[in-house]
Amino acid sequence: MAKLLQTLTPLLSLLLLATATTARSQATSFIYDFYGQKPTDLLYQGDAHFPSDSTFLRLTNTDSSGNPLSHRAGRAVHSNPIHLYQAGAHADFETTLKFTISHTGTASVPGDGLTFFIQPVGTPLGFTGASFGIFNPAGLNPAVFAVEFDIYPNAGVDPSYRHVGIDIGSNVSKNTTDVGGALLGQEVTARINYVQATKLISVQVSAGSESFEVSYVQDLSTFLPQMVEVGLSGSTGGAIAVFDVVSWPNFHVFSSPYVKFGFEALKIRTQQSIASPFTPSRIAPVFLLFQQRCHAFHQPAAAVRHEQLLLLLLYISRAAVARLLQPRLFTASAAAARITMQNYSRHSSAVPLREVEVGISASTGGAVAIHDLIS
Asked: Contact at 8 Å (CB) between 203 and 191?
């Protein structure tokens, strides 16, 4: 009888050194509603103020009749600097704001817009119109992140529709979604979420019976400093509107340790018993699965999860062997390994997972093989 075991291939080199870098977790949160005593830990810049006997924050001035004025800007900034991230830790944040944009007076077209922004501490008030009180006259500020709720399509800057946009260092949005007239004349709720692990910025907007979403992938730590300030701004240009913040019910930033992954050699030997039929297509691939889930704190029962799957697949270095294996997972490439990353969002009420485990797995089905981890 032939030897029971036969080596198929000296298989591959691949992966895994998991080096954990720890840092003390920290959280920063605040809530602003505008009933009763007005907040004393907001900085009011430009036009931002509370009208007499109001329960809302107005970002741009009006005349004595309540009609909006042209070329105005105002900001409300949380007065305490936010430690957005630190060495060895990443920061996820989320915020919720509720506002109304109303159009009165003689102007035929409403404009310009309202923003949530993050910027370096002490950044001065920007310009009016399409600069939203946060950008310079050219619409630039390289160290600003903003989500804009833009009701006027400025030529050369904006798409041809009213939109919600994600701004990185410029008022030319990286991504937008068309909101039609939904931002005007009714209360709007916006939820903004950032997950450092996936670099995913996501915005969900609800206005009446309508809802909208826009997202963009950007590592905010590449251009924002560790210490930042956060705020809300509004502006008008030649087109005008009234921008009122009903409440800022949630801002939360959570900084926690993360795990870094590097590469070292992992030698694996796959063997089969010649006494059974060899059907490589039915042998489960050996892989490492790294999974991290983050969730929105504001509504745990229906939280939006942003889940990252980092799948490190083993690639056979010999074309002849590679052809035998599942073409869906293996190729004839001589590359030692490739990384397939999939980012997606899903709705779930499951308990959020903030700790992960890593490992190597293998399996057999009706067809059998022996998978040995050498080192």
From this structure: yes
